[in-house]
Amino acid sequence: MPEATFYVLQSDSQRERFAFACRLIEKAYRSGQFGYVLTDSDAQSQLIDDLLWTFRAGSFIPHQQVTGELPALKNIFLIGSTPTPQAWQKLVINLSNQSPQNFQQATRILEILDNSEATKEPGRQRWIQYKQAGFDVTKHEFDKAVD
Fold first, then answer.
1. What are the tens digits of pLDDT across the range 41-90?
2. Cα distance between the two ends of the chain
3. Which residues of 47-85 are buried (b: 16+ CB within 10 A; e: fewer)?
4. Element (H, E) at 77
5. Where are the domains of the chain?
6. Is the dihedral of CA 50, 55, 58, 61 positive or negative?
7. Is residue 144's pLDDT more than 70?
8. Stated pTM of the model
């Protein structure tokens, strides 16, 4: 059964939300998983790209932004605001305010929400959408961003 996991941070800081995303990406990479990081804009994609290089000293996560042509290697994280490329649909880390296009193709979707209504209200709508599509949906709340 496909699953969607919502991580809800008590902070309303976008920076903390994106730093949390980097830690989840690192955890997935260390467990041998790769996927797509969906953002709302090219500017957000660039921010995530930059953070993945700097969020933790000594950390390396193979990644690149989607700029048109897809990479030959499939074992990297792609970052973009465009629909999820087919080879990266298994794991989607959603930082956008929309459901990933063709989300039904995903095995796992990780949603990261902060404590602002700007992310929580669209997140509630995605929760309903995933449940209606037969996803196993769970939620984890955090008082602060964890390392």
1. 999 999 999 999 887 777 788 888 988 777 777 788 999 999 888 888 89
2. 29
3. bbbebbeebeeeeebebeebeeeeeeeeeebbbbbeebe
4. strand 77-80
5. 3-142
6. negative
7. no
8. 0.91
3-142 CATH fold = Rossmann fold (3.40.50)
Query: CA quadruple 86, 87, 91, 94: dihedral positive or negative?
Result: negative
Gap between the Cα atoms of 124 and 121, Å rounded:
5
* Neighbouring-strand partners of residue 47: none
Distance, CA of 98 to CA of 105 (rounded, Å): 16
User: Whole-angstrom Cα distance, residue 107 to residue 144?
Assistant: 27
Convert the pLDDT of each residue in 39-52 to its tens digit: 999 999 999 999 99
Torsion of CA 14, 106, 29, 126, to 10 degrees: 20
Q: What tokens appear for 45 in the block?
A: 């994609």
